[in-house]
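To: structure desk
From: M.T.
Subject: fold request, one chain
Message: Could you run this one when you get a chance? Sequence is below, nothing fancy, just the single chain.
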Amino acid sequence: MLTYPADRPCIGLQNSADGFVVSGKPESVARACGVLSDTVKDANGQTPEKLLWRLDVEVGFHPAMLPAVAQVAEWAAAYGLDVEQARGIAHNILMDPVDWVAECRRMAALGVRRILEIGSSGGVVMLTQAVLDGEGIEVLDVSGAEGKAALFGA
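Reply: Done. Structure tokens follow.
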């Protein structure tokens, strides 16, 4: 498990070959983006204002989520569940950085032929398909009726 100071932003997710998500407290992320805007340009001379998008979400992948991990462990103990297993799962979901590119490539190496997006909005389909383009792997959003119909042939 990787650890970072809770008051500092970190790369919480790599979601494409050149796309990263900076996670952290809003003021920390804003400071990091300000530094990037002042100092970084891409190969075409574009500054981060053109390359940074603010995601209006509150997600994990950051040490600031440690209290939530502790809460899961408390709930597990209260209900007689395996506390360490619950803590480990919560830590993985809420705090551990994710390299989506590596995860997709690992699935391809395993011979996966179809990936099902079961989330509430199908938002990962485009990211996944972009990484796996040319691999012959179908990425299907089954979060809605249309995807379920495609999956089950209805």
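Reply (cont.): The radius of gyration is 18 Å. Let me know if you need anything else for the meeting.
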